Amino acid sequence: MNQDIQRVLYTAEDLAAANQRLGRQLAQDYAGKQPIFVCILKGAVVFLTDLMRQIPTELSVDFMDVSSYNGQTSSSGAVKILKDLDVSVAGRDVIFVEDIVDTGITLQALMELFKTRKVKSMKLVAMLDKKMHRQREVQPDYVGLECPDEFIVGYGMDYQDKYRNLPYIGILKPDVYK
Predict the structure, then answer these.
(1) Predicted pLDDT at 71
(2) pLDDT digits (tens, 9 = 90+) for 132-159
(3) Helices 12-29/45-52 angle, 10° precision
(4) How large is the C-alpha radius of gyration of the chain?
(5) How far apart are CA 125 and CA 110, in angstroms?
(6) Which one of 18, 40, 89, 126 has the lowest number of neighbouring Cβ atoms within 10 Å?
(7) Residue ranges per structural domain of the chain
């Protein structure tokens, strides 16, 4: 897998530092509360695991599998829920955990859906923010690191379900996906 990486964008150490910073901020902001972290599968699961270990307060976790990429390198624009939550979020403080915010299409659809579920509050934490492709008015409330206009993989993020297990975030060589 490493031979398919053009260059490492963020090392495992960079990711750990971002998680520590985000964990401190979330612990402070949610002190005395019991938020539910809604992890967007599959990409955000590695981030969620590292992040929640940095938060020394009570929290719960649930998962949603939502697709708008369908194996491609860019969003199709059609959001499809493949797996919904197992618990009700009515009256809860919800924190969406996302690996990367790119177009904002998926997250806008989820936020609209969750408004109908009568949540107490909604926030978004993302390891990466890729602003240049934003098509919807979605801004993460907590951001680990900025993402350049490159196709990246690793740390849970994939190309055709490969590279998720890389311990770093790297830029995929264009000849791999073109």
Answers:
(1) 53
(2) 888 998 999 999 999 999 999 999 999 9
(3) 60
(4) 16
(5) 14
(6) 89
(7) 13-147
Q: Which residues, other chains included, contact 124 with Cβ-Cβ below 8 Å and sequence gap of 6+?
A: 95, 96, 98, 101, 107, 111, 138, 139, 140, 141, 142
Architecture of the domain whose range is 13-147: 3-Layer(aba) Sandwich (3.40)
Give the residue numbers annotated as catalytic, written as ranges. 102
CA distance 41 to 99: 9
Euclidean distance between CA atoms 123 and 97, whole angstroms? 9
- What one-letter code names the amino acid at 19? N
Those residues whose C-beta lies under 8 Å from the C-beta of residue 163, and which sit 6 or more positions away, are: 1, 4, 153, 154, 157, 170, 172
Determine the pLDDT at residue 80.
Answer: 86
Token pair, residue 21, equals: 């910073």
Q: What is the pLDDT of residues 23-70, one digit of tens each?
A: 999 999 999 999 999 999 999 999 999 999 999 989 999 999 987 655
Tokens for 115, please give them.
């408004």
